[in-house]
């Protein structure tokens, strides 16, 4: 038997995520445009080099909606997309709902080994082409009448056809899709912002009730937002709604990393109490990524919010490109010289 020092070590590529403003800075750097005051071209240049190496750059599908919002143009959105499409190793990260649900279902199975639940990935490799199965298709087949109307409309033809895989497309094509969706659904596009603000406002108003009995609210969120009870009942013959509710009420949510971060961030936000802003929904969609990647570069305000929710994340969540570049540099060593 080989000594420990002789064992083969498999080192997975580091993964990192950049939010919109930082992607814009890289796009401008590539065009030799000046960066905003105080931003380091050297830091962004290093980050850009990492994009072209075997690092796992993460694309959040919901981000495309942010890129085409407000005064954004098709050209500006495509410039952002081009940065990600140039990545040597690019991953699509599922929508926040499906990440939370996957963790909850996994925790259900950990506690009740005989349960059947849908299995799906939360990362999908985009850089090698091919196809993948979105979580929505898995869940839609379990509870077709309980997913959102907009989701049903988006995948209606695919769901009805029985297809389980859809082709991988570029980030640029995701942008084109977001632009078309915005054009066809202008009211729905605006409602996504207003609905989020309304729900968060109600949560802030009800903070006293929440902190009196958090577990009751957690279970309601698992059932109302994630519909985890309906998935359990649909996948397990003989399991009643009451059985599913009892299972969910006794989960150890601290073992669900993105769910627990959401809970702590939500509690912090309720205590803060200030009115919701228009762009908060886009920020919250980033939260589930945090436990799963090695380096995150986001805006300063949201970074402070995340750190207040969980101070242990300070070592990998950054708002300053120079700090993120330094963290990435520490991860580069195992990949030096590997350009294949």
Give the structure's gist in a few sentences.
By secondary structure, this protein is α/β, with parallel strands linked by helices. It is 55% helix and 7% strand. The chain has one domain (12-335).
Given the structure, what is the number of helices?
17
Major beta sheet, specifics? Answer: 6 strands, mixed
Give the CA-based shape: globular
Strand order of the largest sheet: 4-3-2-1-7-8
Overall helicity: 55-70%
Low-confidence stretches: 1-5
pLDDT averaged over residues: 88
Distance between the termini: 32 Å
Secondary structure: elements and pairs:
Elements: E1 15-18, H1 20-30, H2 41-51, E2 56-60, H3 63-67, H4 74-85, E3 90-93, H5 96-111, E4 123-125, E5 131-132, H6 135-142, H7 149-161, E6 166-167, H8 171-184, H9 186-205, H10 207-212, H11 214-224, H12 228-235, H13 241-249, H14 257-272, H15 280-284, E7 295-297, H16 300-309, E8 317-318, H17 321-332
Parallel strand pairs: 1-2, 1-7, 2-3, 7-8
Antiparallel strand pairs: 3-4, 5-6
Please, could you describe this protein's structure?
It is a single chain. The chain is α/β, with parallel strands linked by helices and 340 residues long. The protein has one domain (12-335). Helices cover 55% and strands 7% of the residues. It has helices at residues 20-30, 41-51, 63-67, 74-85, 96-111, 135-142, 149-161, 171-184, 186-205, 207-212, 214-224, 228-235, 241-249, 257-272, 280-284, 300-309, 321-332; strands at residues 15-18, 56-60, 90-93, 123-125, 131-132, 166-167, 295-297, 317-318. A six-stranded mixed beta sheet has the order 4-3-2-1-7-8, sandwiched between helices. Helix 4 (74-85) packs antiparallel against helix 8 (171-184), helix 6 (135-142) crosses helix 7 (149-161) and helix 14 (257-272) packs across helix 16. The model is unreliable at 1-5 (pLDDT under 50).
């Amino acid at each position: 038997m080989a000594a420990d020092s002789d064992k083969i070590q498999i080192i997975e590529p580091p993964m990192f995520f950049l939010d919109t403003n930082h992607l814009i800075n890289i796009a401008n750097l590539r065009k030799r445009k000046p960066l905003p005051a105080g931003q380091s071209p050297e830091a962004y240049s290093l980050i850009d080099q990492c994009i072209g190496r075997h690092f796992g750059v993460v694309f959040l599908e919901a981000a495309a909606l942010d890129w085409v919002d407000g005064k954004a143009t098709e050209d500006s959105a495509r410039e952002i997309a081009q940065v990600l499409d140039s990545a040597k190793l690019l991953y699509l990260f599922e929508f926040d709902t499906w990440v939370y649900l996957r963790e909850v279902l996994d925790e259900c199975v950990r506690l009740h080994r005989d349960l059947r639940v849908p299995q799906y990935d939360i990362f999908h490799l985009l850089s090698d082409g091919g196809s993948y199965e979105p979580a929505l298709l898995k869940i839609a087949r379990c509870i077709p009448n309980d997913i959102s109307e907009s989701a049903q409309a988006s995948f209606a033809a695919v769901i009805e056809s029985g297809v389980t895989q859809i082709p991988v497309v570029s980030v640029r094509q995701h942008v084109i899709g977001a632009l078309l969706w915005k054009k066809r659904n202008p009211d729905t596009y605006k409602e996504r912002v207003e609905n989020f603000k309304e729900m968060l406002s109600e949560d802030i108003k009800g903070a006293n009730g929440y902190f009196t009995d958090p577990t009751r609210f957690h279970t309601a969120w698992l059932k109302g937002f994630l519909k985890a009870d309906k998935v359990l009942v649909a996948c397990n013959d003989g399991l009643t709604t009451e059985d599913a509710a009892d299972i969910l009420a006794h989960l150890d949510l601290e073992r669900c990393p993105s769910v627990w971060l959401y809970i702590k961030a939500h509690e912090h936000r309720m205590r803060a109490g200030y009115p919701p802003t228009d762009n908060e929904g886009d920020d919250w969609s980033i939260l589930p990524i945090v436990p799963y990647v090695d380096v995150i570069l986001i805006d300063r305000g949201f970074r402070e919010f995340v750190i207040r929710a969980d101070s242990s994340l300070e070592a990998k969540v950054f708002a300053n490109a120079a700090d993120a570049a330094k963290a990435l540099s520490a991860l580069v060593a195992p990949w030096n010289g590997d350009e294949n």
